[in-house]
Write a structure and sequence with these properties.
The protein has 484 residues and is mainly alpha-helical. It folds into 4 domains: 112 residues; 95 residues; 90 residues, no CATH class; 84 residues, no CATH class. Helix 8 crosses helix 10, helix 12 crosses helix 13 and helix 16 packs antiparallel against helix 17. It is extended, with a radius of gyration of 42 Å. The C terminus is likely disordered.
């Protein structure tokens, strides 16, 4: 529309210019000087200008007609697309309903089959045969049924009812999907459908961390491993703020503070070389403090220890900023460097713009030198096994350095070609050793089979007698007994 208005304005201005030009020609024609009339063809100029004006007006009308035609066609196409989208949505809805019905039918059939399988009497006693054949299969079928039946709709129903055990059963059954973004999406949307999402998450955390009943009753006789338990706590807290950001929860701060104190008491003294489960605990506790805004309940030194326990976490620098420890980051970086964790220290350096105080190239070289010196000591003390472990550690360190240099664009200052060459050498050596080990294993299996065959072929019972010459001759010419 704006372009057509501009075209109309141009045509109007052209008409005004043409009128001025024609009036100038008339004024020129009014002069009776014969010399000018012979030089300037006034009539032909008027005709030419009028023809051009008519031509442009005709072209403009044709373009307007085409534009109107295309606008009508566009509206018709949009109507057809809207109708098709509506029909596709209806078909999709019907197909999903049909798929859900088929799924329910198959699940019910599986449940009935499992019940019949469990009710079938054994052929012999359990002491003679051991566990029944179908026991493991029935357990797998029941577990698959649990995972399949727990749909997103049922999870939302549990959240709406503030059912802690239902949500907890869903989370523990789906622990294999903890690293998927879609899992966070559905869990976050389900938690947001609860009347009090923040209180629901706290209740679930309390049930997980400090259960009044054994944890096996939640997962149908299965014990929840500490790794899954603390990872589930972290996932629940992160799902509360996933795509929604942090909010202020004034009404439940006391409950959050009580849980945080208990959690900190069970965590105990955080060591930099602690187990992976302890690091998950520390990360979950930090996320709880940040999400519910209760960082003031802890001393800065304790918070720094918690941050030092999780330097390899993806959002460690963001959590440190949220804890209000930006002014303590230089101390954190120095502690990480002194403990041999130069790569996490570089993450903090670039997150808080401390490159001038702590040159990253120097830290990368220091990290490689320390790894190589430790590897050299292992080679001297452990021999061949030490060489293998040393090569593996050096390969991991080289890959970390190359990744860090590419992540923070340090290739201009730090040449990566020697490191990549060394990586290729270590990978080739590792592949050759693996191939030699596989060939040796195959040869040993073949040799064992041949030896086993020979031992069975030459083995003879103890009561077997040596065949005599008479026996050999009788076997060569058997006697035929004729019936009288």
């Amino acid at each position: 529309m704006a372009e057509s208005e501009e075209a109309v304005a141009c045509i109007d201005s052209m008409n005004e210019t043409v009128l001025k030009f024609l009036s100038a020609l008339d004024e020129l024609d009014s002069r009776k000087n014969p010399s000018l009339q012979s030089k300037i063809p006034v009539e032909s100029s008027k005709e030419c200008v009028q023809k051009l004006q008519k031509f442009f007006q005709k072209e403009f009308r044709q373009l307007e007609e085409k534009e109107n035609f295309f606008e009508e066609m566009k509206s018709e196409i949009q109507e057809v697309l809207a109708e098709r989208e509506a029909t596709i949505a209806d078909r999709e809805r019907t197909l999903l309903d049909r798929l859900q019905e088929m799924k329910d039918i198959s699940v019910s059939a599986l449940v009935e089959a499992c019940k019949k399988r469990k009710m079938a009497p054994p052929m012999k006693s359990g002491s003679e045969l051991g566990p029944p054949r179908g026991s493991h299969k029935s357990e797998k079928v029941a577990e698959a049924k649990d995972n399949e039946v727990m749909t997103l709709h049922e999870l939302k129903q549990f959240c709406k009812k503030m059912d802690v055990e239902g949500v907890l059963r869903y989370v523990t059954c789906k622990w294999k999907h903890f690293n998927l973004c879609s899992y966070y999406e559905e869990l976050s949307s389900a938690i947001k459908s609860a009347p009090q999402p923040a209180r629901l998450v706290l209740n679930i955390l309390e049930s997980l961390l400090f259960p009044s009943i054994p944890s096996g009753s939640i997962a149908k006789g299965k014990d929840i491993s500490p790794n899954i338990k603390f990872k589930a706590c972290l996932v629940l807290i992160e799902s509360l703020v996933f795509r929604h950001g942090r909010q202020k929860y004034y009404e439940i701060k006391n409950q959050a503070k009580a849980i945080a104190r208990k959690w900190k008491a069970t965590l105990g003294h955080v060591d930099l070389n602690s187990w992976y489960v302890n690091k998950l605990q520390a990360q979950g506790l930090v996320q709880l403090l940040v999400t519910y805004g209760i960082t003031a309940e802890f001393d800065e030194n304790e918070l720094c220890k918690l941050v030092l326990a999780i330097p390899n976490a993806k959002r460690a620098s963001v959590l440190c900023q949220s804890l209000g420890l930006a002014h303590r980051v230089p101390e954190v970086v120095e502690a990480l460097v002194n403990s041999g964790k130069q790569i996490p220290a570089i993450h903090f350096i670039f997150a808080f713009d401390l490159g001038k105080s702590y040159p990253p190239i120097y830290l990368l070289e220091d990290y490689l030198n320390s790894v190589r010196s430790k590897a050299h000591l292992k080679v001297q003390t452990d021999g061949a096994a030490g060489v293998k472990n040393a090569n593996n550690e050096e390969l991991v360190a080289l890959r970390n350095v190359v990744w860090c240099a590419r992540e923070y664009e340090l290739q201009r200052e730090y040449n990566l070609d020697p490191l990549q060459t060394r990586i290729m050498q270590l990978e080739d050596a590792k592949a050759k050793k693996r191939k030699v080990a596989e060939d040796a294993a195959k040869n040993s299996v073949k040799r064992a089979r041949v030896d086993d065959y020979r031992s069975h072929a030459h083995k003879r019972p103890a009561n077997d007698q040596e065949p005599s010459l008479f026996m050999l001759q009788s076997n060569k010419y058997p006697v035929k007994i004729s019936s009288c």
